[in-house]
Amino acid sequence: MAVEITIGVQNLPREIVLETDQTADEVAAAVAAALGGAPALELHDTRGRRVIVPTATLGYVEIGSETKARVGFGSI
């Protein structure tokens, strides 16, 4: 299962888009913790990279629904 996350950052024209193996609830909990006083929002993507965004610069976080990876000709 993969969840697509779009993060809007203040004063940047582009969004940060990543896919993660975390559930939508885990991502929502990480966002809530960041907004509750943590200095940064930290997420891990499906490629093993770590994305850290300072909480003070968060514009918005859009959490997509969980989708299974497609296999075969249907994934083209």
How would you summarize the topology of this molecule?
Blueprint: E1 2-9, E2 16-20, H1 24-35, E3 40-44, E4 50-54, E5 58-67
Antiparallel strand pairs: 1-2, 1-5, 3-4
Please provide a brief summary of the model.
The protein is 16% helix and 43% strand.
Report on this model:
There is one protein chain. The chain is an alpha+beta fold. The chain has a single domain, classed as SH3 type barrels, CATH 2.30.30. It is built from 1 helix and 5 strands. The chain has a 3-stranded antiparallel sheet, covered by helices on one side. The protein is globular and about 45 Å long. The mean pLDDT is 89.
Q: Termini separation (Å)? A: 18 Å
Major sheet: arrangement of strands: 2-1-5
* H-E string: EEHEEE
Return the average pLDDT rounded to an integer: 89
Radius of gyration: 13 Å
Care to count the β-strands?
A: 5
Pfam families: DUF3107
Organism: Cellulomonas biazotea
Keywords: ATP-binding, Nucleotide-binding
Protein name: ATP-binding protein
Task: List the main descriptive attributes of the protein structure presented here.
76 residues, alpha+beta, SH3 type barrels, three-stranded antiparallel sheet
